[in-house]
């Protein structure tokens, strides 16, 4: 015969254990993270579980000191002149000076992204890549005896080299001729190149035409203005052509009086304000210093 254990005692043990375990879990949840959850409950339901921090003591009020009357100074028999007062330095002056003295580069880049000003615009410009002496020597080497770079006969202060070929008598409509002149400054800087040809429809005229094309090719090669070579085709067909790029100009045109007379000009031509402004800025005569005269 078996005896069943009492149920009331086992239930009491279960509930005691459940309460203890639940209390441990609740205490852990409330006290974790520096009692953050417990402080939240205290603030939510105004339990006042935590003491409020005491307010800081008020700052003591210092009463201004009353000035004491100065003691009378006994009179002296001899008085010395008063010493000059020392200059009073203002504490705010250095601050203002430091504030006013800003670094020079503080606003140096403030206009980088500003749109260009029309009055300051420039332009890409061509320049002669060789001197008059070099070009005359190249023409002589190519078979055109233009001579040396020397002072011109007609124009004072102008240097030049030139050559003329005449095939036939002057004034004969069937005569052909070829003329070239290179002009510039005494320093060797070029001003322009001019050619004049008379090409009648005969063997002499065709020979002069071939000489013209060969000379133009030589000039463009020496000056490195190779984009002007597109004008060679219309020149070969004796058609008027003018080409301008970067302040340089090549023009080939027929004379009005005689349709077998032609002129060719190769020069620098500054037209736009941007080109003129750039040419003035990079003018060697403006920024190149002359050599001093020898002392006697």
Structure characterization notes:
It is a single chain. It is rod-shaped, with a radius of gyration of 52 Å. It has helices at residues 7-45, 92-100, 132-141, 203-223, 232-236, 273-281, 284-287, and strands at 150-151, 159-167, 176-184, 190-198, 241-245, 248-254, 261-268. Among the domains are: 17-47, no CATH class; 132-283, no CATH class. It contains 7 helices and 7 strands; from the N terminus they run H-H-H-E-E-E-E-H-H-E-E-E-H-H. It is α+β, with helices and mostly antiparallel strands. The longest helix has 39 residues, at 7-45. A 7-stranded antiparallel sheet has the order 1-2-3-4-7-6-5.
**Number of separate strands:** 7
Q: pLDDT below 50 for ≥5 consecutive residues: which ranges?
A: 77-82, 86-100
Question: Largest beta sheet, briefly?
Answer: 7 strands, antiparallel
In what range is the share of β-strand residues? Answer: 15-25%
Strand numbers in spatial order across the main sheet: 1-2-3-4-7-6-5
Instruction: Work out the helicity level.
Output: 25-40%
What structural category do the secondary elements indicate?
alpha+beta
Chart the SSEs and their pairings:
Elements: H1 7-45, H2 92-100, H3 132-141, E1 150-151, E2 159-167, E3 176-184, E4 190-198, H4 203-223, H5 232-236, E5 241-245, E6 248-254, E7 261-268, H6 273-281, H7 284-287
Antiparallel strand pairs: 1-2, 2-3, 3-4, 4-7, 5-6, 6-7
């Amino acid at each position: 015969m078996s005896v069943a254990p009492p149920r009331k005692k086992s239930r009491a043990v279960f509930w005691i254990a459940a309460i203890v375990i639940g209390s441990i879990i609740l205490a852990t949840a409330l006290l974790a993270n520096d009692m953050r959850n417990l402080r939240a409950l205290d603030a939510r339901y105004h339990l006042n579980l935590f003491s409020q921090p005491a307010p800081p003591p008020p700052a003591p009020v210092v009463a201004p000191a009353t000035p004491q009357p100065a003691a009378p100074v006994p009179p002296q028999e001899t008085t010395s002149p008063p010493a000059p007062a020392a200059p009073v330095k203002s504490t705010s002056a250095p601050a203002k000076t430091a504030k006013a003295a800003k670094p020079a580069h503080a606003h140096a880049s403030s206009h980088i992204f500003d749109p260009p000003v029309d009055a300051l615009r420039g332009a890409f410009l061509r320049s002669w890549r060789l001197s008059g002496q070099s070009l005359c020597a190249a023409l002589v080497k190519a078979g055109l005896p233009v001579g040396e770079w020397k002072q011109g006969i007609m124009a004072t202060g102008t240097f030049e080299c030139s050559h003329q070929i005449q095939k036939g008598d002057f004034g004969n409509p069937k005569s052909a001729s070829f003329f070239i002149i290179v002009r510039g400054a005494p320093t060797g800087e070029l001003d322009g190149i001019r050619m004049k040809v008379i090409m009648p429809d005969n063997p002499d005229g065709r020979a002069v035409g071939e000489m013209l094309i060969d000379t133009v090719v030589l000039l463009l090669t020496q000056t490195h203005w190779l984009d002007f070579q597109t004008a060679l085709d219309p020149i070969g067909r004796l058609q008027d052509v003018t080409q301008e790029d970067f302040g340089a100009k090549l023009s080939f045109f027929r004379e009005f009086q005689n349709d077998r007379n032609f002129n060719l000009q190769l020069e620098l031509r500054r037209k736009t304000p941007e080109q003129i402004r750039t040419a003035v800025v990079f003018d060697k005569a403006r920024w190149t210093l002359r050599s001093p005269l020898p002392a006697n």
